[in-house]
Design a protein that fits this description.
The complex is a heterodimer. By secondary structure, chain A is of the alpha+beta class. Chain A is 33% helix and 25% strand. Chain A is built from 15 helices and 24 strands. The longest helix of chain A has 36 residues. Chain B is globular. In chain B, strand 1, helix 5 and strand 2 form a beta-alpha-beta unit. Chain B has 16 helices and 5 strands. Chain B has 3 domains: 96 residues, Orthogonal Bundle (Methyltransferase, Methionine Synthase (B12-binding Domains), Chain A, domain 1); 137 residues, 3-Layer(aba) Sandwich (Rossmann fold); 121 residues, Globin-like (Orthogonal Bundle), CATH 1.10.490. Chain B has a 5-stranded parallel β-sheet, with helices on both faces. By secondary structure, chain B is an alpha/beta fold. The chains are: A alpha+beta, B alpha/beta. At the A-B interface, helix 5, helix 6, helix 8, helix 13 and helix 15 of A face helix 1, helix 2, helix 4, helix 6 and helix 11 of B.
Chain lengths: 550, 364
């Protein structure tokens, strides 16, 4: 209000000492007729003259406040929130004081700057809240498609009437997610060259850094305009910075009738783009890493087992760390190359756990695979594997079981050799559980391995269970500190007579898992070799539910 | 095994015949016959969804009933379930079940520690039949695996299954983890209580009573998006008293203390062999699990329901339930600084002493 303060004083009277007061002052009598006004008021309302009606001079909000003050009378307490509004280009708060004779003096306090500050603060708060919300939404996902959805939707809700998130091209297809305000994001892909749209090619390359680019709406290709959107007023393409990885571009569209983008809005859009670009490039890196891990892991994952040459196999594996999928236990079923030859089943445990152990299981598994032509001679296989392990730079050792399985009529012959490994268990039809009589030294430590081989015959419905010590050494139970142990395993298996191979594996896994609760454990593997129950047997046997309900 | 009431086969005589045939195959552990029954039904033009839900699911319900009534063992229940699983696999490969995905993508999984995969499997197969692209992750899925799977696929929603109520805290962790990455969650299974009351409590976007209900709900339209600024702890303010945390942390010490005290109170227990002693300890551990879950949910009814059910199960196995009330009293004695836990245990004792059906035949 510097301008009013420097005004010359035209009227100073003893009963009106506010002629030079820096704030506009207006005094009106009981009838609402303006009696006095000071210099500042005169500058603000150049047309005001004493004798005019106040209501005709001032804006409606002040006239209403004047009316309200007069109705309330002189003794009333002034309202806590003063009336406020615009006069000309500035905003004022109006404070009234009423005399007993009905004279009302209005003090007008200029609060334009405060109002502007308040508005700016409000806008900043909203923007910060939006950026915080955007960050938490974007940070929570490591999925590129979902990050694009979030980007398009947030931009459409907060920055424009519609938005497109565009990722760098994959095989000539440009992944595009578009979203209209109030709608849901829709994903698609466009077979176009990004360079056909001005600014898009540069934005998608991610380097060199380019500013946002205003695009003449008439140049927008039809695929960029959402269905039913109508003519475009303004369009801007902002790069999504990916920090070394091209992340994509954000296209903002405003409808005919909306305001154009301001400089400030464009700067703000860039702040948002920085966040969404970082999230999208992180998601892209994660997807690439996952793809690499999946390929490398594929060879180390335990195989899915099924029927081979008239024998049923099932396997189950639980690595020591629940967040990993591989570990130091392994198993394989190698079908014979010649019909009638035995299938070789291997199950083993490498000392140690985690990824390093898993890498060694991979080596052992490929060595055993290479030794398949010698599968008839378990002792020789173990000797060669032992030599290979002693030669390698790994200091780890392993225990394993070899099983050569061949179907013989309705029966199945299994030749078993254990090298330092828990003895396989055989479930007979009557529920008896036998230990296979095989033992030997572990591989990878001593210059020589010795092992005794045994042969067991499985009648239809009988199974041979190979397992690693992670099962029997599982610590837990109701008191928390008991080993699951072989006895408990034998007891569980004796209830599994006649069960299908998968059923046995799942049953053992479930019991051990319940035994463990949430406690830590070692890698655990189980493989079941089952002689199928034949149709013939069922028909003759004629077992019905009576067997179970008795 | 979950003690939920299995679905009944109603109406259609042909369906009842199929159900009987499949039950016979399952009860005799004859997987060939089981797959034959299913494949023949499909060849005869029976709708695959009907075979899944009105035949296979109904038989699975009977398996659960037979177990609860002590007519089959846990291992037999497992064998029966394995054969039912095979029947589902056979069905999924039949040309009648072949569908081209034309809807969105759904991830179906069981929560960690949940071994009953069949209900989730049925949901997965029904959704496939109804044209969804389904990622079925199977039983016992640690939240870590579930979340990394969701990061690498773009599912529209997650369907989580849990049949055992004691897995609800774990289920809650999985639900909130999915929601944190912006995915809505539909839950189902006996764990979520009558009318899915715990589903709502734990903040799931939707609950379905069975596979058909899940498919119908998803067909109605997309599930609401989770609120990103929602804090899971706001749903369970009672957790602030730490009773849940402390009971879970000390569960083994609790079981041990009560087991010893029970031996003092019931000298006959000293003659128990190792297996009997272990069974008793397991029963006590179960009580602690349910007590902890009731503390987590802030729901006493869950515990009283469990106690009534345990009494029934014990009775079916010819075990007197008379040691249950003293066991609950002993737990209350151990947990003297835990007002919520004590109140829950007291309600448990009241259930046993007022419910005549459980006390009948158990000379106290």
């Amino acid at each position: 209000m510097d301008s009013t303060r420097t005004q010359t004083v035209t009227d100073t009277e003893p009963d009106f000492p506010w002629g030079r007061a820096p704030y506009p002052v207006l005094v009106a009598d009981a009838a609402g007729v303006l009696v006095r006004l000071n210099d500042a008021a005169q500058v603000l309302l150049p047309a005001a003259r004493p004798g005019s009606r106040l209501a005709d001079l001032v804006p409606a909000w002040l006239a209403e406040a004047d009316q309200a003050v007069r109705l309330a009378g002189p003794r009333s307490t002034p309202s806590r929130i003063p009336a406020s509004g615009a006069i000309g280009t500035r905003r004022f708060e109006a404070h009234a004081s009423t005399r007993d004779d009905g004279m009302v003096a209005w003090w007008l306090v200029d609060d334009t700057d405060r109002q502007l500050t308040r508005e700016a603060l409000h806008m900043e708060r909203e923007r910060t809240a939006f950026l915080a919300k955007a960050s938490s939404a974007l940070l929570s996902s490591l999925n590129l498609a979902r990050c694009m959805d979030i980007t398009a939707q947030l931009a459409a809700e907060n920055l424009a009437d519609a938005a497109l998130a565009i990722a760098p091209a994959r095989d000539r297809w440009l992944p595009v997610v578009s979203c209209v305000r109030g709608g849901t994001p829709t994903a698609g892909k466009e077979a176009i060259s990004p360079d056909d749209v001005p600014g898009l090619g540069e934005a998608l390359r991610g380097f060199p850094p380019v500013p946002s680019r205003w695009i003449d709406p008439s140049l927008a290709p039809p695929w960029m305009i959402p269905e039913g959107f109508g003519p475009i007023k303004a369009m801007v393409i902002t790069p999504l910075p990916g920090h070394g990885v091209p992340a994509g571009a954000l296209v903002l569209l405003r409808k005919e009738g909306s305001a154009a983008f301001t400089e400030e809005e464009e700067v703000f859009a860039r702040l948002f783009a920085a966040r969404s670009g970082a999230a999208m490039s992180a998601a892209r890196l994660y997807a690439e890493q996952t793809a690499i891990t999946d390929v490398l892991m594929r060879e180390l994952l335990p195989p899915a087992l099924h029927h081979v040459a008239g024998v049923h196999y099932a396997g189950g594996y639980r690595p020591s760390a629940d967040h990993e999928r591989i570990g130091g236990d392994f198993y394989d079923v190698h079908p014979a190359t010649q019909q009638g030859d035995p299938t070789l089943v291997t199950l083993g445990d490498v000392c140690g756990k985690g990824l390093e152990a898993a890498v060694l299981t991979g080596k052992i598994r490929s060595t055993l695979h290479a030794l398949l032509p010698l599968a008839d001679d378990h002792q020789r296989m173990l000797t060669l594997l032992n030599a290979a392990l002693l030669d390698s730079h790994h200091t780890r050792f392993a225990t394993l079981v070899l099983a050569s399985v061949v179907r013989d009529g309705h029966r199945v012959q299994v030749r078993l050799t254990s090298a330092g490994h828990p003895k396989p268990l055989i479930i007979r039809t009557d529920g008896t559980v036998e230990e296979a009589d095989t033992r030997g030294t572990l591989v990878g430590v001593l210059p020589e391995v010795r092992a005794r081989t045994t042969t067991v015959t499985l009648a239809p419905g009988e199974s041979c269970v190979l397992y690693t010590d992670g099962i029997t050494e599982a610590k837990g139970g109701p008191l928390g500190d008991t080993l699951f142990g072989e006895q408990r395993l034998v007891r569980a298996l004796s209830g599994c007579a006649g069960m299908p191979a998968e059923g046995i594996v799942e049953h053992v896994q479930m019991l051990v898992s319940q035994w463990l609760g949430n406690r830590r454990h070692d890698d655990m593997a189980v493989v079941t070799i089952s002689a199928p129950r034949t149709h013939h047997l069922n028909a003759v046997d004629g077992r019905t539910r009576g067997r179970y309900t008795s | 095994m979950n003690p939920s009431t299995p679905p009944r086969t109603l109406g259609h005589p042909h369906i009842r015949e199929l159900t009987d045939q499949l039950w016979n195959a399952v009860a005799t552990a004859d997987e060939y016959l089981a797959t034959d029954v299913v494949l023949r039904a499909l060849d005869d033009g029976v709708d695959p969804e009907t075979v899944l839900l009105d035949v296979i699911a109904a038989v699975q319900g009977t398996v659960g009933e037979e177990w609860a009534a002590n007519r089959i063992s846990v291992a037999q229940e497992h064998a029966a379930t394995a054969i039912n699983e095979r029947a589902v696999t056979a069905l999924a490969l039949h040309p009648a079940a072949r569908t081209t995905p034309h809807r969105g993508r759904i991830t179906v999984a069981c929560v960690d520690g949940e071994w009953h995969a069949l209900p989730a499997r049925l949901v997965a197969e029904v959704l496939k039949l109804r044209g969804w692209q389904v990622d079925y992750l199977g039983a016992q899925v640690p939240a870590h695996h579930l979340i990394s799977h969701l990061h690498t696929t773009k599912a529209d929603a997650v369907a989580l299954s849990s049949s055992i109520a004691t897995r609800l805290p774990t289920a809650h962790a999985a639900v909130t983890a999915c929601q944190a990455i912006g995915l809505p969650v539909l839950v189902g299974g006996a764990a979520f209580g009558p009318n899915g009351r715990y589903a709502h409590l734990l903040g799931a976007q939707a609950w379905a009573p069975d596979a058909r209900g899940a498919a119908d709900r998803l067909a109605q339209g997309p599930l609401p998006r989770p609120q990103m600024d929602h804090q899971p702890v706001d749903d369970l303010p009672h957790l602030a008293d730490q009773e849940y945390t402390l009971v879970v942390r000390n569960n083994h010490a609790l079981v041990r203390a009560v087991l010893l005290a029970l031996e003092d109170a019931f000298p006959a227990m000293r003659a128990y062999d190792d297996i009997q002693r272990e069974r008793t300890a397991e029963d006590l551990a179960h009580i602690v699990d349910f007590l902890a879950t009731a503390l987590y949910l802030g729901d006493e009814d869950l515990f009283t329901w469990f106690i009534a059910w345990t009494a029934e199960i014990l009775q079916a196995r010819g075990v007197p339930a008379r040691s249950l009330p003293p066991a609950l009293d002993l737990f209350a004695r151990e947990l003297k600084d835990f007002p919520r836990a004590r109140r829950i245990l007291r309600r448990g004792v009241e259930t046993l002493t007022t419910d005549s059906s459980t006390t009948a035949g158990t000379p106290a």
